[in-house]
Amino acid sequence: MLIVWLLVLLGYPVASWAHDEVKSETPTLTVSETGMVPHAPDTAFVTFGLETAGKSLAEAQRRNNSIMSKVMEQLRDLQIDRERIQTSSFTVSPQYRPPSNRPTDASPASPEIVGYVVSNMLTVEIRALDKVGTVIEEVLKAGANTFHGLHWGLRDEQAVRLSALKQAADKVREKAAVLSEALRVKLVRVLSVNEGGHVVRPAVAMARMAMESSAGGAPISSGELKVEATVTLVYEIAPN
């Protein structure tokens, strides 16, 4: 009680403190929509691997280099530019002798290295889509012994994404107008805008654009990519 009287005597507006703490919240309406633009891919990315083993690291590396040189030569013959070929992974793994199952009183010995495995992985960008099947087949013939699959892409993905973004923006404004009319409120102003998006890469079973590579090549279906963009708007609203 003494503290309150002192505050009054000093001229502090005690009642206004409580009033300032109570702030009115702005009523808002949040709407979100997604735009989607289908587009045929114009680029394929194929990933191959080569694993070679040897009793010594030098032997495993020598075998790997020898076969990989043939793979690179084959890619050049297929008119794949060097800048479209990228080493995506390179690893060296020691191989250990399996532990003996015989019981022994001696303390366990350190694992014994009996060889090495060198693994080299390449990712190849292919712009001539009619060559995809041929590239896969010829590279495996040249000595690559693992195939890690392929995925499709767009060289100018940004342009397609902007188109999807514009579609999403048109849809979200229309949705906001319909909701405001149904709720009998007025859209005062946009308080915030958020956008996002990604490329939907359909499964092989969904692909629709089939093609055959040159004689002997595997059938490859490039399908259709769908570029999505999402726009979220937060409106300030008022009674209509």
Characterise the protein shown here.
The chain has 240 residues and is an alpha+beta fold. The chain has a four-stranded antiparallel β-sheet. It has five helices and nine strands, in the order ααββαββαβαββββ. The two termini are 48 Å apart. 17% of the residues are buried. The model is unreliable at 1-22 and 203-216 (pLDDT under 50).
Distance between the termini: 48 Å
Q: Give the rounded overall mean pLDDT.
A: 84
Biggest beta-sheet profile: 4 strands, antiparallel
The name of the CATH superfamily of the largest domain reads Protein of unknown function (DUF541), domain 1
Contiguous runs where pLDDT drops below 50 for at least 5 residues: 1-22, 203-216
Q: What is Rg? A: 32 Å
What is the CATH architecture assignment of the largest domain? Answer: 2-Layer Sandwich
Annotation, overall tally of beta strands = 9
What number of domains?
2
Strand coverage percent? 35-45%
Order of H and E elements? HHEEHEEHEHEEEE
Overall shape: it is elongated
State the CATH class of the largest domain: Alpha Beta
Q: Structural class per helix/strand content?
A: alpha+beta
Number of helices: 5
Name its key features.
Translation Initiation Factor IF3; Alpha-Beta Plaits; four-stranded antiparallel beta sheet; 9 strands; elongated; 240 residues; alpha+beta; 5 helices
